[in-house]
Amino acid sequence: MTESLTHPDDEFAIPMGTPSIDGHDTQTTGENSDVTLIDSQAALLDINLGAIGKNYAHFDALSGPAAIAPVMKCDAYGLGADAIASYLFENHGARSFFVATVGEGIALRQSLDDPAIEIFVLNGPGDTTLTAFAEAALTPVINSVQQATLWASAYPGIDIALHVDTGMNRLGVMEDRLGTIKSLDGLSVGVLMSHLACATARESAANARQRTRFLSAATQFPSARLSLSASAGAHLHESYHYSLIRPGISLFGYTASGAADRRITPSATLTAPIIQIRTVKRGERVGYDGTWTAARPSKIATLAIGYGDGLPRHLSNCGDVRIGRQKFPMVGRVSMDLTTIDITDAPSGLAIGDRAEIFGPTQPLEAMATTVETIPYEILTGLNGRIQRRYSV
Question: Quick one: which of 114, 352, 119 has its CA closest to 246?
Answer without folding.
Answer: 119
